[in-house]
Amino acid sequence: MAITDSPEIAGATSSGADNGGGAHRATLRRRLSVPPALGSDSSSPEAESAINDSRGERDGASLMRNSRGGAAESEERKRDMELRYGDEAEEEREGRVKEDGESSNAKGTDAMAAKFMFRAAAPAHRKNRESPLSSDAIFKQSHAGLFNLCVVVLVAVNSRLIIENLMKYGWLIKAGFWFSSTSLSDWPLLMCCLCLPVFALAAFLVEKLVKLNYIHEWVAVFLHVIITTTAILFPVVVILRCDSAVLSGVALMLFACIVWLKLVSYAHTNYDLRVLAKSQEKWEAVSRYWNLDYSYDVSFKSLVYFMVAPTLCYQPSYPRTSCIRKGWVVRQLIKLVIFTGFMGFIIEQYINPIVQNSQHPLKGNLLYAVERVLKLSVPNLYVWLCMFYCFFHLWLNILAELLCFGDREFYKDWWNAKTVEEYWRMWNMPVHKWMVRHIYCPSLQNGLPKTVAILIAFLVSAIFHELCVAVPCHIFKFWAFSGIMLQVPLVIVTNYLQDKFKNSMVGNMMFWCFFCIFGQPMCVLLYYHDLMNRKAGTR
What we know:
It is a single chain. Mean pLDDT is 77; it is low at 1-73 and 81-89. The chain has four domains: 1-84; 185-318, no CATH class; 328-400; 411-539, no CATH class. It is mainly α. Helix content is 74%, strand content 0%. The chain starts with 6 loop residues before the first helix and ends with a helix. The chain is built from 20 helices and no strands.
């Protein structure tokens, strides 16, 4: 028999349209909880058919009531939203209208201002401004265009001078500029150069004996003094006894000075490492601080690497690179050949004629001497810059690449030096590090004032400059020595000007003027005329 709706269900159903979704849910819960009528046989086919028919009718009626209830619910929610958020929506609409009005007003104002800019009454001056080259704004501007102009003018002027020189004097470079019969007769200098590594082997044997406790510490110091002194005096004697070419003598003396500096560093560093090795705590602290394998070990391999490495300061291990860039090395070698040839061209085509047509700068007409110095200053500056680029940048980097030497700070931006002191600290970093490590710091540790330590460093530098120039020229008038020692008062003057004016340009201009415009050309003229006078006297 069919199952009819109970009065509760009918009542809930009739009120579903008014009460919304909550009434529908209550109706469904009550409907699902109604049991079948008593006395019915749910297992008979007729009963099952009746139940299915009743269930289908009930589901259809429920769907219709749900659709009517959902529509009523959506209408009710819409009315609630309008009542609840009507004010806020109105305010939002008013704000949008206001913003649109302001935006349209701003656009209108911009359009009017843009049109007004092209009228005769438009203001041409609207705020305070500085001229780009004024003292307050010159360092805030980019001068890349002026730099490009200077490069273009420099190339144009020098091209004209080269053409004019070739038209006036012709090709002055001799066929035997690099190799000549005089150079081939300098075999004693070559043999002396090949003998210099023997002193490094002697220093290694001394360190080995000290490590094995075969000799005392003071005996090792005495032997190192003899070895280093002989290493520098032996080439001097060979050059003075042989009337060799000046260029060959300069090359040998430079090599001898490098060997001397390396041997001093090797002996001094090993002595200090032995002192540190006696204190295990200091030794471990040093190794942790530098993050290097800094153990004390007299190794022949480390000595050989140090003697050929582009450094003057010995240490058991160095920062290393992982590979050799063969293509990069080839490119640097090509640059080295090009700039070396350019340097030789300037020397033969410009410097030699200027020097040969000059007189001794300390004799004769003063104005003529000043004119010669100024005329010589420009090609001399080019040669000096080429020398710096070829040696400190190209050659040392090539050597470092072949040896996988990691620390390649061979120079700093010395061209921006504000004082002479900054220049000497930045232009030759291998020598500067050697001076600080083996002269300046030990002097301070022994109680000497800072000024005295700096003076000692300049004194050592002056001695080696004199040896590298005076010995090959066979002239001992201390021009190079005086030129280096005169840097000390220049250091004081440029430091004073830097502190007084607080301007980097003043010290930098003084450095360029005194060092490159007047100092080097004057030394070239002095040594050239003294050399010519010596050769004339020997003839």
